[in-house]
Structure formats: structure tokens, C-alpha cells
Specification:
- It is a single chain.
- The chain is of the alpha/beta class.
- Helices cover 31% and strands 15% of the residues.
- A six-stranded mixed sheet has the order 3-2-4-1-5-6.
- The protein is globular and about 50 Å long.
């Protein structure tokens, strides 16, 4: 669809079981959405159905269970498209040794990570991605996805880290520091572009559909 604007809509997945359980949940150990996470996704589905936003959008998801479940729950509001699973939109990979580890154990073994420091440092020792590798993967995945669906609206069910990496990539902002994003579960972040290299932020962290829901499920007590 040459000449038509491309819209990229990022939806962070609903609250996940790994968040409630305070574990580092990569794709290997992700067990999907919590009950509140499903409620959040259904609220978003109902909002999109009522507003008619993003009808006929291409629906893409990372390969994490929590993102796929979110995409499947909102799909009816978009006309019921098949979900394109794109592993490149997965969250920062902690690697096989740390995937599933509790946050308490991680900090006990490796200390509190410095997310604002050297992007090439091993924040996930034992085979996990560095921040630089994660950002590069997301950038390459964005490029492929936009090229494949140019002139369309593409809605991606993904992760807070992916929203952050995309924000910095499309708006040409420093990859580390400067600001922090706190992206809410099932919130909408939207970008639009009329060309290959110029993007405009339409909105960030739009979660009006969550009004009245609790902000989170009470967390499990960490075991030291």
C-alpha cells in the first residue's frame, strides 16, 4: 500500500503469572496470564470492539505465552485475524540458566543489575542477552515487520522492554538512560509513519480501559 501511512500499535501483555510469582519469566518458563491479566485483556478487547479502532489490523505476537494469550483474547475485536507469532518481539532473554529463577535468588547471586550502565555488560550471565543484543534484535524485527506490512496497521502484543526498545529506536533516542518508561499491562502505545525513516508518537501508555481494576495481583512472598 505505497503512499499510505503505516501505523504500529504496541500492546503490552496482560499481567503474567511470572510477575505475580516474582520470577524471571523468559519464553521457556512463561505460563501465561494471571486472572487479573485476563481481565485486563478482556477490558481491552471490549474497548476496541466498541471504538472500532484497529479493525482489520495485522495482529502479531511475541512467542511468549503471556503475549500470545493477550493477542488471542483481543483478536475478536479486530475481526478475528490469525495471530502471527514473531519470536523477535520477545522480551529480553535471560538465558536458560536464569529463566525461571526468582528475583530474590538472582539478586543474591548476581547483585542488583545496573540497567543504565554499559549496554554490553552481562546482566544475565550464562547465555542471556545483553541490552545491546536485545535492542538490536528488536530493531531488526521491527524492520522486517514494517517492510512486510507497509501501509497497514500492525498491532503487536509484546512486552515492556520491547516497548522501550521500540520507543528509542523509532524516535531516535539514546538506547540507555535519559528517561525510564513504566508501561502498564495492556496499555496502547501507537506510532505512525508516512515514510521509511520518520515516525511520530501518537500516544503512549493509554490504559483508560483499566479503570476500576486493581493495579496488580498481590505478589507472592519471596522465599529467601
Amino acid at each position: 500500500m505505497e503512499g499510505q501511512a503505516t501505523s504500529l500499535v504496541l500492546v503490552r501483555h496482560g499481567e503474567s503469572n511470572v510477575t505475580v510469582n516474582r520470577t524471571i519469566g523468559g519464553r521457556r518458563t512463561c505460563s501465561g496470564l494471571s486472572e487479573l491479566g485476563r481481565q485486563q485483556a478482556l477490558r481491552l478487547r471490549d474497548r476496541l470492539a466498541a471504538s472500532g479502532e484497529f479493525t482489520d489490523a495485522v495482529l502479531v505476537s511475541s512467542d511468549f505465552a503471556r503475549a500470545i494469550e493477550t493477542a488471542e483474547l483481543i483478536a475478536p475485536a479486530l475481526g478475528g485475524p490469525d495471530v502471527e507469532v514473531e519470536p523477535g518481539f520477545g522480551e529480553h532473554d535471560p538465558g536458560p540458566e536464569i529463566d525461571g529463577m526468582s528475583f530474590v535468588e538472582y539478586v543474591s547471586r548476581f547483585g542488583t543489575p545496573d540497567w543504565t550502565g554499559d549496554p554490553h555488560q552481562d546482566v544475565f550471565p550464562g547465555g542471556g542477552e545483553t541490552v545491546a543484543q536485545f535492542h538490536d534484535r528488536v530493531a531488526r524485527t521491527l524492520g522486517r515487520t514494517i517492510d512486510r506490512h507497509r501501509g497497514r496497521t500492525v498491532l503487536v502484543a509484546c512486552h515492556g522492554g520491547v516497548v522501550d526498545a521500540t520507543f528509542r529506536r523509532l524516535l531516535r533516542i539514546a538506547p540507555r538512560g535519559v528517561f525510564e518508561l513504566h508501561t502498564v499491562n495492556t496499555s496502547i502505545s501507537e506510532f505512525t509513519s508516512a515514510s521509511d525513516d520518520s515516525w511520530r508518537l501518537v500516544r503512549y501508555n493509554d490504559a483508560a480501559h483499566l479503570t476500576g481494576l486493581p493495579p496488580e495481583t498481590p505478589r507472592s512472598t519471596p522465599v529467601s
